[in-house]
Amino acid sequence: METFNSSQIIENSINMLPQLVSGLFTKIVVAVIIILIGLVVGKILGKVVKNLLHSIEFNSIMKKATGIKISLEEGISFFVSYFIYFLFIVMALNQLGLTTVVLHMISGAILIIIIISIFLSIKDFMPNMFSGIFIHKKKFINVGDTIKVDNTEGKVIHINLVETKIETKRGDIIYLPNSLLTRNKVVKIRKRKSNYE
Predict the structure, then answer these.
(1) Segment 56-85, tens digit of pLDDT
(2) Which top CATH class is 136-190?
């Protein structure tokens, strides 16, 4: 049975230290290079996707299909860029041997961000949607009516599920959330004219 004294263990550890440091340094350099390549590839692919969607007039197609003006070209290109960044960061972490721990942390953070964003978007959307349904069913406000809510007075020019668009006497367009109309006192100044008058 061999016996090792402490001086031999320390000496062996010191002898192995340059190999460990050089291996770790190499892994860090490769990980940094992977991240830099990912930044370049992500930026280029994001611009390519944005230009491609712009050339087929994707925003116009979506506006015609949904009736809502949304800048999806920028959103999709933004998503593509950050997805590429994420993939290259995962590859860099894999190079360092930290993939599983960091991936669990990243996926947990992403899940929390998604839950918070859904909650914040629903927080305002749901009351406005229910108020919009109530306004459509009760028909107490119609297009063409002149109304006053708080200090805002104008003619109703459009009502949808989320908001009501009114035009003031000065020609300003104001968007009022439907929940504001059902919570506050609404004064009809002039009813719209029917076809029979």
Answers:
(1) 887 777 777 766 666 777 878 888 888 888
(2) mainly beta
